[in-house]
Structure to design on (228 residues):
């Protein structure tokens, strides 16, 4: 059974700091891994999707890496801004026609 | 284009009543998922549709929960004889295809269900 862990549950940083959010998963046989952002009272917005054959993906100030063999992914946020404050969730898909298994998320607060 | 639409956005019901939650996926998306999110908890998978069939309904917590999808589009999640522990945000998501690694999930804003 796939399990996804995100630690810590919450993080507070000053504006401008570069930061790394961690995600670990127990079954390395994955199809893809996705990072999502969730704002309060809203649904999830997909940020980055890393295919099983890829090592990283970049979008603007965001960079996500994937190390399947160690069961880890990181989301790097450069030059953080108060608008980046949200909950960031990691999810893995383990089969072609399967569900995504989510971590519980990391709630990020960027202080002005 | 339009995103995933869920209705109602909020639903308050009395314990023991039945409720229906609706999801309109993005047009052309063949795969549809239902999840629920309780306060302080992660997203709990409920059911997955590919077209009108549900190859994985392993997450439905009891036989009070059922879901259907018609015309490969709209889906309804029905909860019978609601209990207080059913209170949560119910999220629907759709994606263009499965078996393709590059298809991200698109979520609706959810239905917040409160059972009193």
């Amino acid at each position: 059974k796939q399990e996804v862990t995100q630690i810590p549950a919450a993080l507070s940083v000053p504006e401008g700091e570069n930061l790394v959010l961690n995600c670990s998963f127990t079954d390395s046989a994955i199809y893809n891994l996705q990072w999502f952002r969730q704002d309060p009272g809203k649904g999830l917005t997909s940020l980055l999707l890393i295919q099983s054959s890829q090592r990283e993906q970049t979008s603007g100030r965001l960079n996500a890496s994937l190390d399947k063999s160690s069961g880890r992914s990181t989301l790097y946020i450069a030059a953080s801004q108060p608008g980046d404050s949200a909950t960031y969730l990691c999810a893995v898909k383990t089969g072609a026609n399967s569900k995504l298994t989510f971590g519980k998320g990391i709630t990020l607060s960027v202080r002005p | 284009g339009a995103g995933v639409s869920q209705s109602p956005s909020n639903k308050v019901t009395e314990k023991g009543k039945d409720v229906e939650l609706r999801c309109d996926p993005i047009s052309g998306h063949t795969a549809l998922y239902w999840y629920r999110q309780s306060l302080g908890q992660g997203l709990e998978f409920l059911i997955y549709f590919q077209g009108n069939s549900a190859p994985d309904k392993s997450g439905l917590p009891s036989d009070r929960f059922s879901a259907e999808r018609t015309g490969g589009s709209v889906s309804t999640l029905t909860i019978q004889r609601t209990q207080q522990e059913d209170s949560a945000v119910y999220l629907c998501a759709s994606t263009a295809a499965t078996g393709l690694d590059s298809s991200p999930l698109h979520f609706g804003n959810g239905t917040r269900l409160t059972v009193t």
Q: What stands out?
A: Chain B has a mean pLDDT of 92.
